[in-house]
Amino acid sequence: MGSTSAENSGSEHNDAAGVGRRDLIRRSAALGLIAVPTMSFLSACASGGGDGDSGDNNETQGTTSKTNPFGVKKGTKLDVVVFKGGYGDDYAKAWEASFQKKWGITSTHTGTQEITGKLQPRFNGGTPPDIVDDSGAQQIKIDVLNRNGQLLDLAVVLDAPSVDDPSKKVRDTVIPGTLDPGLQEGKIVALNYIYTVWGLWYSGKLFKEKGWEEPKTWADFIAVCQAAKKDGIGGLAHQGKYPYYINVAIMDMIAKKGGLDAMKAIDNLDPKAFVGSEAAQAGVEAIYEIVEKGLLMPGTNGLTHTESQTRWNQYKAAFITCGSWLENEQLKQTPADFDMKFMPMPLLPDSKLPFEAIRAGSGEPFIIPKKASNLAGAKEFMRLMLSKEWSTTFAKEANSLTILKDGVDPSVKLRPGTQSTVEASKAAGDNTFRFLYTEWYSEMGTAIEAASNELMAKRIQPKEWLKRCQAAVDKQAKDPASKKNHRD
Q: Quick check: 239 and 309 in contact, CB under 8 A?
């Protein structure tokens, strides 16, 4: 599974809704690739900690210089924990080998999906790792860690000289807008490293065999689902045990129907974000139509992400919702001739955004705990992540692009499903959008996911879904800290 899983602290303001697509398009056209990725999601909670920064201690702090801006001390150790999901962890092992060669620093490497289980006790005990890829279903929520004062403000890394061009700051080498998801209360505390798109996926082979065309309107989408049902195939599969995924579809429908204003109303905790929003009502009613007409893949509501995705790979559903880490995650389960394809969410009548518009941005948040024992090493490790060498290593090992502009060697080729996101991204141009409430307000996000779970199980209807989602927004708006987050 991927992770959901933004930017502007002390730097030029970049509109997160727009995400600097031209840079990516130029690069994608030249390389024939585009990012896949992950996003952070689902529930976990963090406690304990403390507000004090442990500071760089004498045992791990060396002398700073132009080529060693953080004072990395040779011979020290680095504790690295990586979410081992759709991207695996071979890329991190390659990074660590490179880091050891350069600095003589040995790494303790942990690749796991049990981020909360393994790291919660360490954060609570004041002995966290040095750098963490905090992603996946068991992610420790970034906003919770931030509220507990457990995360380093990454401005110190982002304002350091770029490895490839010391005349530039690190923050000036990334695709505009891609730092935004890491923004909490005016500070960037997480580096979302992978460039991601979210939407619908289907099998090119199945569609060709059945004579189906990629649906651009909601009516055409329903028609394909109905044709699939007649052939004994589910229309839409979703990862029922993790309603984060179906919210990709619901929220995309809302954003495309009502435009960026409808999206920002939710992120900005508007009193009419859901109840009183024509776009929200139209979006959720569209998704509920799938439920009402019996067009879900049978059993999908009770499946995990990989179970549902595997059945889709077995041609038991026409469509599935996911982010662009899907291909990596399903490599072993995907038939060689499956011909995995990505597509944007289809359009409702009178939508303000075009069919080509997609949710796009950055995912897979890397964090440096304030109480890391080797802060100098962790900062330098993150700086190197945003070098062309390490970005290319990631692309080779993980079949994905990073947020680094022109950061991947042209020799790197991505797999077919990921390649299809290139075409979708080029077609989208500047028509991209990205919700931020998932990073800013995890409790609210969890409440919306719970409502969607009830909706897809037909235990509530759209009117009640809107009511529950608005209640979650209104509750979050009462938190004084919410006023520190705002989208223009």
A: yes
